[in-house]
Amino acid sequence: MEVRPRDAADRAAAEAFLTRHNTLRTARLGELVHPLDHPALIAEGDGEGLLGMLTYVPGRDWRQCEILTLHVDAQWHGAGTALIEAIGQLARRQ
User: 20-43 pLDDT, tens per residue?
Assistant: First the structure.
């Protein structure tokens, strides 16, 4: 499994993934927002495509980092854990 930042080439797959998980829009601080407008990490499997995605909202100067959405296609396969670990590492590096 590989975890990496979502890039422009992932747009269609990310949109389809969020659609399957009913989160093309989500509530944040009393308003509806579009997760695709925020940075994201994706988990991919060898030949399996997109296994999970985590969208996030970095705070000012990275003093905090809010997870906006976190979804995986299958539980207990490590994708969610890998995404959470990756965002924690990213936040610490900032």
Answer: 999 999 999 889 999 999 999 999
Q: What is the pLDDT of residue 94?
A: 85
By residue count, the chain amounts to 94
CB 83 within 8 A of CB 54: yes
Distances (CA, A) of 70 to 14, 56, 59, 61: 12, 9, 18, 22
CB 6 within 8 A of CB 40: yes
Cβ contacts of 87 within 8 Å, gap of 6 or more: 41, 54, 56, 65, 67
d(CA 87, CA 67): 9
Torsion of CA 17, 74, 23, 13, to 10 degrees: -10
**pLDDT tens-digit profile of 6-15?**
999 999 999 9
